[in-house]
Amino acid sequence: MRIISVNPYIVRGATTSSEIHPNWGLSCLVRIETETGLVGWGEGSSLISQDGGLAKVREVVNTIFGPTLIGRDPTEPMVIWKELQTLAASTFGRDRMYLQKASIAAISAIDIALWDISGQAKEQPVHKLLSNVVRSKIKFSSDSAWRPASSVPQPEAQSLLDLGFDTFEVSLLGSLENNMQSARATRYAFGRQANIVVRQSTSRAPAENSPRLSVPMAWGDLEWKGKALCDGMAGRGVDILQPNIIFYGGFTALLRILTIAKSHDVLVMPSCHTRRGSGIALAATIQASAAVPWKSMVDGQEPNPKEPMISLSPDVLDIRNQFLVQNIDGSGGYLHVSERPGLGTTVDAQALSRMAIQ
Start and end of every Mandelate racemase/muconate lactonizing enzyme N-terminal domain (predicted)? Predict the structure, then answer.
């Protein structure tokens, strides 16, 4: 089986607002077709906001990576991943950061598509190719930050609990004092029965000697460099690593990260950006989340979530499903892991024609 075509498409992901930066929420879908008729889909994105944005990712796929894939065996994603990394280094070297980001986003999309084809060829879902971990569903979590404006829990908190949410992420964006107040207010709003995870949404991972909250510290959802993710784990200030597979290299990069995380006793919880990426990004993240090992307790700390989770709201799920032929099931507060081969879904051609950005 050989690859006969590689086609990239720029799409806007799960964002409902039109009053945004023109590059916000964009990602690059990649369609790879084989001579046998199998088609794989992948997706890559980055925080590029200059010099063409995601158009640069599409250009990298069309002019640099895509031509090298024609005639290759698509069921060797790890071999191809390493070759593309070498090609990117020789082409861009230490060039401008946006070119490095574009190359990693392109590799992410290609790698995910190749794993999709590999799963279809072997009649297995991707998560079964990645590991022996068995997980049939992934819990929703809600991204929340409750400020201590009053001593009474806000009505929104109860509405989320009524919807079945029991795990909440708090983004750390301000001073330590404000972050501590936000974490306490979130705990008060949702009660002791809820799981609380704090996420440091910065480019630098917290260090071991940084002031700590009693809840687990998550980091890495915006990081695109594998070395930075590894350095973050080595700094011993991270309890849960949240790599986004459409940012930093796809499934193959995830397997490498899992090996290193085990040596640092760090949990890995794949992240799916709430407003960046289509249904393919979410389908890939679900497959990744189904394959990661997990443990629920850390000594001297509040318990970790009982299982991996993906921060997502029902309205965003509806938007992501618009891209897909087989919709992702989000019933009962869980994202259900597809057992169909590959990613378990494919892109709706009519939806793509409407949503693709030229």
Answer: 29-130
